[in-house]
Amino acid sequence: MQGYDNTSYGEAFADVYDDWYSDIGDVDAAVEALAQLAQDAGSLPIVELGVGTGRLAIPLAQRVHPTAVIGVDSSAAMLDKLAAKNFEHAPLLVLGDMIDSLPEGPLGVVFIAFNTFFNLGSEQLQRACMQAVAQRLSPNGCFVIEALVPEDPPRTGNSVDVKSLTRDRVVLSVARYDGDEQSAEGQFVEFTEAGGVRLRPWSIRYTSPSQLDDMAAAAGLSRRHRWQTFAKDAFTPDSTRHVSIYAPN
């Protein structure tokens, strides 16, 4: 998408992210699973890449220890929203990207939730992220990726759908899909009586679970677990989402 960069999503969605996405996934199950993985890794730092407004990082910091959790995000707007929540036990925050801004290791757990790995818009960037994480993990550490399972066959074409409709507000979802490039991009177009038109762009480059496994292997990581959810439901051929855990070879 012309003009789109790694800050675009956060700048567009920070003001509505909690309202739109606070109920995605089972937060309690995710926090418990991540805390257990961190304990198994020896209680080293836990890093969330694409921390956003702290949906997972805040309760995880409360569950373990605030100085043990570090949140990285390329959007100052997202981090400002997180910091404004003024929780007593809040994660440490880093403004930066998911490759060059990782804290120095050794790290116990690095995780990316809810398709955020796909915000890395090319295979090259995704591989670079895998390499950067692998270089910083402790021998007992792990890299956790939560993501969708792409449609098979992949979708190609355009779509326009209604996300929400009220008396004084309409939000349309306009998207374009390219199955050959494994990409999807779009806009949430918001119309309100008071505010006019607001555009909220997004863009992803998705990968299949097997492609993630290949990227991990090239970085010196191997898959330890694959669940359907953080509640550790079994992953099956019919699963539409996965939680994949990679560890150093």
Write a concise synopsis of the structure shown.
With 249 residues, the chain is of the alpha/beta class.
Descriptive notes:
The protein is an alpha/beta fold. It folds into two domains: 184 residues, Rossmann fold (3-Layer(aba) Sandwich); 48 residues, Single Sheet (N-terminal domain of TfIIb), CATH 2.20.25. It contains seven helices and eleven strands. The strands form two sheets. Strands 3-2-1-4-5-11-10 form a seven-stranded mixed beta sheet, sandwiched between helices. Strands 6-7-8-9 form a four-stranded antiparallel beta sheet. The model has no long low-confidence stretch (mean pLDDT 95).
Q: Per DSSP, what share of the residues sits in E-state strands of 2 or more residues?
A: 25-35%
**CATH class category of the largest domain:** Alpha Beta
Number of strands: 11
Distance between the termini: 37 Å
Task: Give the tally of structural domains.
Answer: 2
How are strands sequenced across the largest beta sheet? 3-2-1-4-5-11-10
- Provide the CATH architecture of the largest domain: 3-Layer(aba) Sandwich
Order of helices and strands: HHHEHEHEEHEEEEEHEE
Question: Quaternary arrangement of the chains shown?
Answer: single chain
Looking at CATH, the homologous superfamily of the largest domain is Vaccinia Virus protein VP39
Q: What name does the CATH topology of the largest domain carry?
A: Rossmann fold
**Poorly predicted ranges:** none
Global morphology: globular
Estimated radius of gyration = 18 Å
Mean pLDDT: 95
Helix coverage percent: 25-40%
